[in-house]
Structure formats: structure tokens, C-alpha cells
Design goal:
Length: 255
Amino acid sequence: MGLNANLNGAAALVTGASSGLGRHFAQTLARAGARVALAARRRELLEAVAADIRAAGGEAVTITADITSADAVAGMFAEAAAALGPVSIVVNNAGIARPAPALELDEASWDAVVDTNLRGAWLVAQQAARHMVAAGVHGSIINIASILALRVAGHSAPYVAAKAGLLHLTQALALEWARYGIRVNAIAPGYFETDINREFWHTPAGQAMIKRIPQRRLGRLADLDGPLLLLASDASAYMTGSCITVDGGHLQSSL
């Protein structure tokens, strides 16, 4: 694939890379030829992902970091650059959810979700851009949003607020950083089956949600490969401030 060849030798960093979408993003970039820094809080899970990438002939390093700490984020990029050279691709993927009715939501849960999903994403993007500017390299920052940034669901107030904020942040940073050759775009996934939610999709409630998706199926992780490689590579050289939805048509379903 032409897209794959464009990533050969590029240094990439993926946050939240220990499981789920982040793990898949890291593996996809590695298969496309990128050298990948895997960042998350759980070292043992990161090492397992790195081992899989190396076994497939790729290059990966692991970095333990909490993206809600500005110092930790700065250290994460310094460590990645020391191991791989200037990072030119960043997948801003780390995120959490604390489902609860809005009337019952506690302040700590609100803060935890917004601190990770919005403030943390901002810290990662800012530090990424600072490193790119200092190194004199052009780069691509890919923020992982959600269709819940565009259309809300119940029991998820802090999550939908943070993801909506992330989309506007994507546009604001794209506007400011285009002059440095830094592109900032977003991917908004719909519902995907992962290890965390797999059991739910086999329940009556889960099956009912799947029936509301026009394509009548959940997303497969491979469905994200094309958008990811597009935004990571020079194939999207004239794209910045964009959001690509990958949801089987879910946003178009009737209310």
C-alpha cells in the first residue's frame, strides 16, 4: 500500500497504547513502517504490546506516563525522542469513562474524565507541537474523539462534554499550528467491540443498540486503519482541522 510506504522510518507516539483502540493504532502504525513509542500507565500491558510489534518485525519502545501531569507528558516526549528521534506522528488516544446519571454524578468523576479526555489531550498535543517546532519537523497530531462528541447519549455527561471540547480544540490547534507544518485532525469512532465491552454487546441491550446502526454491525478495529494511515501520512497533506467519523452511519440514524 502506498500509505504504508509513507510511514517508513517515522517516529510515532501513541497514548493509551496498552489496550483497546490504542493498542491497535500502535500495531497498525508499526505495520506501516513507523517506529512506535507506546505510552500508558500500565507497564506490563505496554510490554506485551511491544513484544507483539517486535515479533512482527517492528520497532517499539514503552513509556510509563500519566497524561494528566504536565511534567509526565514532557518527560514522555523527551524519552520518546531519546529512543526514536523527533516524533512526527502523535495519536492522542488516552481516555476514560465514568458512566453515571447526571443527577448522581460526583465531582471527582467529572474531574477525572475531563482531566484525562480534554486537559490531558491538550497537554499531549501542546508538548508534541513544542517538540516538533524545536526539532524543525513537520508532523501530524491525531486526536481520538467519538461520535458522542457530535451526538449525545445518556449517563455520559463529562465524556460527551470532553470529547466535544476535543473537537473544537482540534480545530483551534489546526488553525494556530498550520504555519509550523503541523496538522491536527481527529477521528470520531462509533461503537467498536473491544475486550472491555465485548460481553455487553451480546446482551439484549447491546443487541438493541447494534440494530440502531445503519450497517447493523459494530465497528471492527481494522475499519480504523484507513483513516489512521490517511491522517498519519502525507496522503492527507492538505487536511487539517478535519474530523473523520467511522461509525457505520450511526450519526445518520433516526432519533
